């Protein structure tokens, strides 16, 4: 994922969800009263897996 925002007046939003089995990141752009997805990342994780 490589995001460069060529328009600094554009509103970008990000949401992060860190669970015990997965990490998710979603990036969106606010346009015309709605959020449009720009990019999405999901990775498997093991919180406390080595304890």
Draw up the topology in text.
Layout: E1 12-18, E2 22-31, E3 34-44
Question: How is this structure best described in words?
Answer:
- By secondary structure, the chain is mostly beta strands.
- It has a domain at 11-44.
- It is 0% helix and 55% strand.
- The chain is built from no helices and 3 strands.
- The chain has strands spanning 12-18, 22-31, 34-44.
- The chain has a 3-stranded antiparallel β-sheet with strand order 1-2-3, with no helix packed on it.
- It starts with 11 loop residues before the first strand and ends in a 7-residue tail after the last strand.
Mean pLDDT: 85
> How large is the radius of gyration?
14 Å
Instruction: List the total number of helices.
Output: 0
**Count of extended strands:** 3
List key phrases describing it:
0% helix; three-stranded antiparallel β-sheet; 51 residues; mainly beta; single chain
What is shown here, in short?
The chain has no helices and 3 strands. The protein is 0% helix and 55% strand.
């Amino acid at each position: 994922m490589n995001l460069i925002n060529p328009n600094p007046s554009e509103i970008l939003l990000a949401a992060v969800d860190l669970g015990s089995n997965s990490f998710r990141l979603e990036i969106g752009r606010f346009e015309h009263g709605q959020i449009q997805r720009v990019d999405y990342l999901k990775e498997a994780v093991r919180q406390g897996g080595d304890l």
